[in-house]
Amino acid sequence: MKKQIAKNVLSNYIATAVGAGLGLFLIPFLIRQLGKEAFGLIVLAESAIAFFELATVSIRMALSRYAAFSLAGDPDKEEFVEYLSTGRGILLVSSAVVLVSAFWVGLYFPALFRVPPGLESQARILFFLVAAAFSASIPNMVFWSVLYAGQRFDLINLCLSLGFILRASALFFFYSVLPPEAVSLTTYGLIYLAMTLTQNGLIYRWQRKIMPDLRIRLGRFKPAKVKEILSFGFHASVSRLSSFFSGNAVDILVNLFWGPALNAVYSVGFKMPSVMNRLFMEATWTLTPTFTELAAKKERRKLKRLFFTYTKLVALLILPPCFFLMLSAGPLILFWVGEGFGLSAQILPLLVFPLLTSLPFAVSGCVLNAYGKVKLPSRVSLAAAALNVGLAAALGKGFSQGLMGIAAASAIASFFSSTFFMPYYACRVAGFSFREYWKESFLKPFAWSALAAGGGFLAFGAADGGMRALPSLAASAAVPALLSYLGAYFFVLAPDERTKIKETFAEITGGLYAAGNKRHHPGLQRSRFCLKGHR
């Protein structure tokens, strides 16, 4: 299990890094090719689809949870197949509902949102194509759930990485060779649809590879399990509202208040915090089936060790880059996208601030899902979502704070819900000391990182007079972070935690070495077996 956990988390970091790296190149490219307003419409269309995604992805979360739990406790896989078959039926109906609903939204897209003159038809077609891609993906969520239940996040992340690479490559290629009149939102939508279908085909293939005997049939549909899936899915969807309102719904508010040009500005400011969030949040969620298995087997000691140690490691990893983004926002944005995005640099520190606590404590959600305690957290998330949208409208429009007010609202709502309630409730459900958890897993890492990394970034900034040229910017990022990580390894981590890290690293590198030997010397294992048999 330990080796698979490490492989899952590492593969998620790699997949997110691939997506982030491509996005950092792709966003300036799209802005240059399409213009700020057209790029803002891409952000808006993908955010509008998230309204439909909110409900359907929650069904996938519920299905994945029940599938993982049933697979851990049912060697014959009977209940496992019943959950998957029932979920498949629910998802087919959901796909049809989403497709029809999105069709009507698309018809009135220019009337519902601010669309610049001349882009009405392209915006409508773009939304249709993005909606069609999402609708086609919904029934295949059951295959993602199979890989999830089998804890094969390495395959999920490989598929995601290939999807990122294919989409970015297609956009770079076609936008570079097509005539100017064909470089449009419609072309973007067609590429989006084609790459989404390819990605889902890969997931289906790998699901068949790891479980070739699995047969998901509507004949195994169980009405009694519909209530379980929908009930858990409803509470899971409510718990996702906070993150939804801090991202997708905010994009819609920005469009309604100020138009697509500021959608582009907000998207640039939100990109780096979003990458940080995905890099660690999604890696954290790969641990959910592991926590579920430990809870099902009542292995409380192992669960506590994983819970505490993982929180501490994430805190030590994320705090230096968070401090750097907050203290170097202006030079970073200028170097990345150039002039005209100064407001993006102003909102960046506000959007990074809640990550200081939300990322380390995100593993609390894994614990709560493992024990099936999602009802109360979902209500708290709903309250945070309402606070977010209310503050965004009040600060952004009512008090004329613009994007600064929008960013402040997101930071406030996210910070309080993730910093206090989620870790407290997770400790209470699992029977752990909240005080011990906070002190050992967060306060010590935070104090060290603030001193070593935060102080180092400030010192480098003062040394070059605040000019922050590229060489100085790179040095101010690397040197304090490296010192922070090395010091944390020796002074913050306990001896047994250092030992576990060494063992995990050895297992990963040993597994990669063995896999490489097997690829390059396929006869090696066979020859050893034959020699053994000959003796």
Could you describe the 3D structure shown?
Helix content is 85%, strand content 0%. It starts with a helix and ends with a helix. The C terminus is likely disordered. With 535 residues, the protein is an all-alpha fold.
Distance between the termini: 34 Å
Mean pLDDT: 85
Structural class: mainly alpha
- Let me know the number of strands: 0
How many H/I helices?
23
Order of helices and strands: HHHHHHHHHHHHHHHHHHHHHHH
Main pleated-sheet profile: none
| Radius of gyration over all CA atoms, rounded | 24 Å
Which spans of ≥5 residues are poorly predicted at pLDDT below 50? 517-535
The helix fraction, in percent, is over 70%
Shape: globular
| Beta content | under 5%
Could you provide a short overview of the structure?
The chain has helices at residues 2-34, 36-73, 78-107, 109-112, 120-137, 141-149, 153-177, 185-210, 223-239, 241-258, 260-285, 288-296, 300-327, 329-337, 342-352, 355-358, 363-370, 375-398, 402-430, 434-463, 470-491, 495-520, 524-534. The protein has 535 residues and is mainly alpha-helical.
